[in-house]
Design goal:
4 helices; about 85% helix; elongated; transmembrane helix; membrane; DUF3817_TM; DUF3817 domain-containing protein; cell membrane
């Protein structure tokens, strides 16, 4: 489970930052009529989000999460700043599970 946690944590942060950049790009596109940044950032964020989904599936299967919880973690990459909160909660949950397994 620990081996799946690190890629999840990295991708949660990267997707979170890219989502904030994407929000800025959308403001530039629709607020100021400048679509150049969003044409670059949107596909990058989309690709990284798909990799994030795979990381969540990998961690969720190893940690034996139920599907509603896993879907909630997946949605964490769709709301600005939420992925940072979700990453902290998931990390705490995994560390707690690992500590309980060792005891």
């Amino acid at each position: 489970m620990e081996s799946a946690l690190k890629p999840f944590r990295v991708l949660a942060y990267v997707v979170g930052v890219m989502l904030l950049v994407l929000c800025t790009a959308m403001v530039l596109r629709y607020g100021f009529g400048n679509p150049a940044m969003s044409k670059v950032v949107a596909p990058i964020h989309g690709g990284l989000y798909m990799i994030y989904l795979i990381a969540v599936m990998n961690l969720g299967m190893k940690a034996r999460w139920n599907w509603p919880y896993m879907l909630g973690v997946m949605l964490g990459g769709t709301v600005p700043f939420l992925s940072f909160y979700v990453e902290r909660r998931v990390t705490q949950r995994v560390h707690t599970a690992l500590a309980a397994a060792e005891a």
